[in-house]
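[step 3/7] fold_predict: job queued, chain A
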Amino acid sequence: IGDYYADRQKWQSAVTYYVQGRNQERLAECYYMLEDYPGLETLVHSLPENHKLLPEIAAMFVTVGMCQQAVAAYCKCNKVKAAVDCCVQLNQWNQAVDLAKAHNMKEIDSLLAKYASHLLEKEKIINAIELYRKANHFLDAAKLLFKIAEDETKKKSKPLRIKKLYVLAALLVEKYHEQMKLTSKSKAKGKRQEASSALAGLLEEDASTMDSKVVDNAWRGAEAYHFYLLAQRQLYNGYVDAAMKTALHLREYEDIIDPMDIYSLLALAACANRAFGSCSKAFIKLESLENVSQDEKETFLELALEIFTKHSAKDTRSGKAECTNCESVIPDWCTVCPSCDQKFSTCVVTGRPLLDYQFWMCQTCKHRAYEQEIGSRATCPLCHTIIG
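[step 4/7] structure written:
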């Protein structure tokens, strides 16, 4: 009777008889023709696992773009590859990746690459970063974040926003380091190999990392914008000597921050600090920059004439400190000892070189600060990790 009604395309009447006769194949066809997709879902739930009808019903769901229902049907008959393919076909990449991860599929890396390129084509870079991060591809995520940070730098975006992007990218690189160490530990066999497993992880990491610049200089961008913001805060709060010392340290980051911004800030801080020798050097540098227009050069020249006709180009006061390595007396803003070439770390709280034997070090970003300066802080000034 069901066939009689189905041949005459009276699907609703046919359903009644097919349900009574338990003809599941024709029932699925009728539900599809009636566009009764909840009925098809109910049928999937009622069928036993690995039933021959499940792939056919899944294919019906795919044709109308119902990805979740199609995946459920494919998974019930253990056709995970078909389920992943249908997710890709319907652009449900997130679900495809989750499925591949859940079932430990070998194709997950190629799937990730396809999904990431799909997102990048649509300029959904943040989504691509989140995808890589979820899949533990930390270095790929970091590279994309560094690219965004560089683009924002070119656009002259807010420095705080750029610093946050660089910090996020560097934190992902730190996670990549941890992942490589853990991978090597799991490969290590026996207690003798455990001691060298961390070193093995680093060696393996170096061997597998094509872009060593990203890994080796992960925190450089974050440092640059941290000290750039710090110098301006110190200057506006009236700590002109501290601002000048921080600005002097910024000269090491000309590859990240526009040199014009660095030396303009240094000239301003040095002038406010009455260190006219340092101010004069900053003006000379500004006038010699290649990307400075003729009008800007003339403005710098006029301003320099106005300052240095009233004041001689000498630093009236400069603090001295002792090198921790060779005990030579050096300027207290010096980051490298002229006598022994000892390089000093920079305090992330004050911007001054660290000339103490004892100091505080962040467990996450490994940056340092004077112990007396960090005492009142709840988080690391650079990476904002909570201080334990």
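[step 5/7] annotate
The mean pLDDT is 80.
DSSP finds 20 helices and four strands in the chain.
exit 0
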